[in-house]
Specification:
mainly alpha, 7 helices, about 0% strand
Length: about 160
């Protein structure tokens, strides 16, 4: 059993679709972390790990990078006329639309609610828990993520 599992894992890691998708996501997160390091002039080890594996929002969009690499690599490997390509294409469109629209709007709304919370405390002493500010993406962040994902998938799947 362990031999079969190791074999399956090695096949997964060698798969061009997996490699390009993972590489695009990780590259975007790595770039985002480096940008944050320069912007803030230093982060703790814990903050670096959080940025590297968990942070949303920022330049470039790892959501856009991941789904673009997935769509591009499936298109190259399976063909543009395959059912799988159509599925991942629309999954990618939906994900990018969400990163640009819904998540961004929710983040802006959360910022306003948190400002209102501070004003309520200052004026009336009312304490409320802060709302989590979900960070969506600007069109530029999405564009850079799309380009990153496309070229990584093109490079890996063309090897």
């Amino acid at each position: 059993m362990p031999g079969k599992l190791l074999y399956a894992l090695s096949r997964l890691i060698e798969n061009p679709v997996f490699l390009s998708t993972f590489s695009a996501w990780f590259s975007a997160q790595f770039i985002k972390t480096v940008v944050e390091l320069f912007r803030t002039r230093g982060l703790s080890g814990r903050e670096i790990l959080a940025n590297l594996f968990w942070k949303t929002g920022g330049m470039p969009s790892s959501h856009s990078s991941l789904v673009t690499a997935l769509t591009t690599s499936v298109g190259i490997m399976e063909g543009l006329d395959s059912v799988l390509f159509v599925v991942v294409l629309f999954y990618g469109i939906l994900t990018i639309r969400d990163a640009l629209g819904v998540r961004r709007s929710a983040g802006v709304q959360a910022q306003w609610l948190n400002q209102l919370r501070v004003e309520l405390f200052q004026r009336y002493g009312i304490t409320l828990k802060p709302v989590k500010e979900v960070h969506g993406h600007t069109p530029a962040e999405v564009f850079v993520g799309v380009m990153l994902g496309f070229f990584i998938a093109l490079g890996i799947c063309s090897l």
